[in-house]
């Protein structure tokens, strides 16, 4: 009956809040967290959050499963980041956070490398060549770097 509050979802923000609506990030984080909670409830038997570990985050057969390859690595990384934050905001301790587990980072790295390989683009960072000035004049082949000094001229 009262029009104060303005929340039609029944979940009103705490009074004194500087923003009447959640940011895009916070809204997505809440949706992701609710979806993950539903996933845990749908497991047979249901998994309470206190028993959740990295095995509930990673797919069962990590190697043959192509599901993560359908989702861009950056999106997976962002999703894990949001769930990591939401876990701790919802009472989980940082020490038991399944989204902060080292195996999750390894898994994400493998997905990133696999997707880069599938695109034909290696993700590995290029190492800087320390001895670039030792072979002046004879290093004109094999380099596709256009940022090289202008002393390399081709007049043949």
UniProtKB/TrEMBL annotation:
Its main location: nucleus. PROSITE patterns: ALOG. InterPro entries: ALOG, ALOG_dom. GO terms for biological process: mRNA transcription; response to light stimulus. It comes from the Eukaryota. Residues 1-29, 124-156 are annotated as: Disordered. GO terms for cellular component: nucleus. The keyword Protease does not apply. Residues 24-127 form the ALOG domain. Transmembrane segments: none annotated. It holds the Pfam family ALOG_dom. This is ALOG domain-containing protein.
């Amino acid at each position: 009956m009262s029009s104060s509050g303005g929340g039609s979802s029944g979940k009103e923000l705490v009074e004194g809040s500087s923003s009447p609506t959640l940011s895009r990030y916070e809204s997505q984080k809440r949706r992701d967290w609710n979806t993950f909670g539903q996933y845990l409830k749908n497991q047979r038997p249901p998994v309470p959050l206190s028993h959740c570990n990295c095995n509930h985050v990673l797919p069962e057969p990590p190697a043959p499963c192509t599901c993560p390859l359908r989702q861009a690595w950056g999106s997976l990384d962002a999703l894990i980041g949001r769930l990591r934050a939401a876990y701790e905001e919802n009472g989980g301790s940082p020490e038991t956070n399944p989204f902060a587990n080292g195996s999750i980072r390894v898994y994400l790295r493998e997905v990133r490398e696999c997707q880069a390989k599938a695109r034909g683009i290696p993700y590995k960072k290029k190492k800087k060549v320390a001895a670039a000035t030792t072979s002046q004049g004879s290093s004109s082949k094999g380099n596709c770097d256009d940022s090289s000094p202008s002393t390399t001229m081709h007049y043949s």
